[in-house]
Each structure stands twice: as C-alpha cells, then as structure tokens.
TrEMBL record:
TPR repeats lie at residues 71-104. This is Prolyl 4-hydroxylase subunit alpha-1 (inferred by orthology to a C. elegans protein). InterPro entries: TPR-like_helical_dom_sf, TPR_P4H, TPR_rpt. It comes from the Eukaryota. PROSITE patterns: TPR. Keywords: TPR repeat. Residues 30-119 form the Prolyl 4-hydroxylase peptide-substrate-binding domain. The keyword Ribosomal protein does not apply.
Amino acid sequence: MRLQDTYRLDTADIANGKILTAKQTEGFTANDCYNIGRHAYTAEDYYHTILWMEEAKKRLPKESDSQPLLEEILEYLAFALYKQGNLKRALQTTEELTKLNPQHARARNNVKWYQDLLVKDGVKPSDHRRNIPPLDNQRPDDGMKDSERTIYEALCRNEVPVSVKATSKLYCYYKMDRPFLRLAPFKVEIVRFNPLAVLFIGVISDEEVERIQLIATPKVRIHFL
C-alpha cells in the first residue's frame, strides 16, 4: 500500500494487473481486494480500507455466490467510512447491509448508532439520507512531515530534476567492500548525491526473483486468512 501511495497507483489499475509500464498481469478477484482491504483495516488504515473495499464491491457482481462476502465488505466499508468522517455514507452503507440481510443484528444497531451521531452533529433526521457530501478520505499520518513525504515520494517517482552540473558528477562503480563482494561485486549507479540515492544493478537474477515470489506467495496468502 505504501508503493500504491508513493507511485500514485490507481486502485482499479492495480486490481486489473496494470502497474505503470510493467507487463500487465492477471487481475485480482473481489476476494483478493477484500483481503487487502481487511489487512488495511486491521492496521487501522481506514484510507486504504475504503479504497480496497470499494474495489472489492465493484468486482463482486461478476462472481458467483457473492452475498456472504458482500456483507463483510459492507460492514468493513461502513466502519471505515465512519472513521474517516463520512457519517452519512456510513449510514447509507450500513442500511444497504440491513436490506441485504435484515437479520444482521450488529448492522441494525449500527444504523441506530449512526443516526444518533448525526443528530448529535445537528443533522435533522429528515436530512440523514439527503445531500450526502463528497467522499472525504485522507491518507493516514505516517510520521513524516508533509514536505518530507512529498520530496521522498517525488524522488521515488524520479520527478525531482537534477541539474546538468550535478549530473556530470554522477558515476557508476563496483561495490567490493566485503570479502564476498571481491568475488561477485555489485554494480552500483549513483543517481543523485543530495539526498544520496543509489541503484544496485544485477544483484539477483530474474530466476532468483521468480523463486522468491514462489516461496513468498503461500505465506502472503496465509497472512491474509
């Protein structure tokens, strides 16, 4: 999710297997999107919870036996909307859940709770479902100052220009400051000096990358369960 933010990747594009200029891969299912959203929820990252639960909801009609998952999506989505300050949308989503499953006790209780909060905020009951404002979904605070995060992310996207003078001082070299690296040195390219950014080239082969992905995938799935 940090990569999604840093590179300004659209949620739907990621779910469709489109990531920048990389070769398009197989897309995500509604359940995949739900799992990402639930992971964000457990981390109290309601910004990404909303993004991924909404994407899961969009994809669900294309899949069979979708009601049980839709109920969970709506419940997580409603609470995330509430936490992000979207009370009317939280109420609207929870009422959608109660229509889907009238026996959902927690959803019925939450409808009353959201209604009470709206009244407390000075919203008349007749206006609870009218004039719903645009979605407010702010990114979570990651501990970095806004200026630091802006610069950091721009650097990652290669959007910070480097002067001709600075570029002329950039160079490449072989990293050999460890005994093992004397036998197999790393290729290093200095991209910029202030702040220092370097690119390691050919550290692992394509075959090794595929092997790491093969080993990691089952563990990622277990983590989602």
